[in-house]
Amino acid sequence: MGRMEKRRLAQASQAAMEKLDIPGEIALGVPRVELVGNREFYMDRHQGVLSYSTELVEISGGSVEVRLMGRDLQLLAMTDDELRITGYIEKVELVG
To answer: What is the pTM of this model?
Structure first.
């Protein structure tokens, strides 16, 4: 695919997202995180768990790494795209 074709495709994609009112983050595959109090963490569009212990969980989000620190952290559920962690979450860091 040539340079001009890629540019046209990007412009067409942007126009379609605007017409459909789709947030850019979703279309670009940017991970989405949700924190429920200090007891539950949810992330979709992750790219894998880098390290895991009951005090520290490191997750790849592609362009960003997410670090959860706390106590009694447990990986409650994980699929190819989503994960859910429970426990006492004391700190969340985004490392870019």
So the answer is: 0.71
Provide the strand spans (E) within 1-96. 32-36, 40-44, 49-52, 56-60, 65-78, 82-95
pLDDT in tens, 42-60: 999 899 999 999 999 999 9
Report CA-CA distances (Å) from 47 to 11, 19, 70: 27, 29, 22
Q: Up-side HSE of residue 73: CA atoms within 13 Å toward CB?
A: 23
Phi, psi of 40 (to 5 degrees): -145, 135
Is residue 73 within 8 Å of residue 89, measured between CB atoms?
Answer: yes
Sheet of 49-52, strands arranged across: 32-36, 40-44, 82-95, 65-78, 56-60, 49-52
